[in-house]
Request: fold
Amino acid sequence: MALTREQMAQRVARELRDGYYVNLGIGIPTLVANYIPDGIEVMLQSENGLLGMGPFPTESEIDADLINAGKQTVTARKGASIFSSVESFAMIRGGHVDLTVLGAFEVDVHGNIASWMVPGKLVKGMGGAMDLVAGADNIIVTMTHAGKAGDSKLLPECSLPLTGAGCIKRVLTDLAYLEIENGAFILKERAPGVSVDEIVSKTAGKLIVPDEVPEMRF
Amino acid sequence: MRPAGPNWAMRVPIFRGQQATGSSMAGFDKRVGSYEQALEGLTDGMTVLAGGFGLCGIPENLIAQIRRMGVTGLTVVSNNCGVDGFGLGVLLEQRQIKKMIASYVGENAEFERQLLSGELEVVLTPQGTLAEKMRAGGAGIPAFYTATGYGTQIGEGKESRSFGGRHYILEESITGDFAIVKGWKADWYGNVIYRHTAQNFNPAVATAGRITVVEVEEIVPPGTLDPAQIHTPGIYVDRLIQGSFEKRIEKRTVRS
Reply:
């Protein structure tokens, strides 16, 4: 079975480490905040200028002056700090954020990522995505392995306009966890009940399959 | 857009307004008596930098005043472009914006319509690059190298250079004829403090206007604010006004 959105978030959350500053993108990455392992502390960075993002507010806590990068009302946790957009992107571009998780339309074997525009459709903008992928060393991309028609999103070469070049090393799809190295995807783990054959058939870019590909457990 | 640098020497506030106190420290008293005075001198074709992220921390009354003034052909630099009927969206409705420099737009139907019909020119700019362009502009730095956008459409046609084996593109800084800023509290001298994430682009914007206009929720006498807690020192601020704010929430999310 392909992973649900919640399982994908759960799997990513296992990469969190105590003391990490983490930026979570919109969509599945946001759900990662619900699965922070017990006993570790992480600070969530929101690029509009908040380090230490807390849960959504209660009705009485709502404050129009406190939002996240998705423009949703949020709270600030104990130990949070708030700053300008300049400071926020100094953190991001200066490589100070320990882990960045974001979604994508496509990734390729060179570590290129396309996530911000589909030609012919209305382009809303890249927001902070180009800064995040250029500034971070440790990035996990979350995406579905293939489109509804079975078309692979793990490619020899991205077909859509890039968000960043050569910056992605790790990808979690609904079928597998893969790493990118020396121009190939390396299959590290597979979703429970998903066969290696299915992953091979849905990966258009060069794929290296080790002898042992463990199943994820939940 | 005005290049940073030499022009800075000519930075003369056109108008500081009537010093509401008439006291002897009027030279540093940035207060003006009305929104008309706050934006006096803004004319067709100028570049306006605006603070805010989404609808959070936007100078909503100054935007409304630009709408009342009816100036057109504006280049507006702001992370976003408001929504239908609020924020910078109201300037779109009146066809006052010719060119928009932003990182994420299209939360409003009117924006989409004008973009597709070719009435509006849009320059999409990565958010961190946009912030840094204004920071650099305000600091007299004409351009800077950044890795953001290298190898993408954003880097096309831009000078690139390698430092330490990594590729960077050259991005030019931004300054504006006017900067419009929303603060929380300020003293008469124009020392400004922002509240929570309503800070966002406002401090960078405040540094990069030839005329910087700040509207706040409360103006307090000098000496009231802790000097070490000031976000925007008064040196950047030319005009200051107190307003009342709707503070519309774009996405109201609560936990149960």
Remarks:
- The longest helix of chain A spans residues 5-13.
- The two ends of chain A are 12 Å apart (CA to CA).
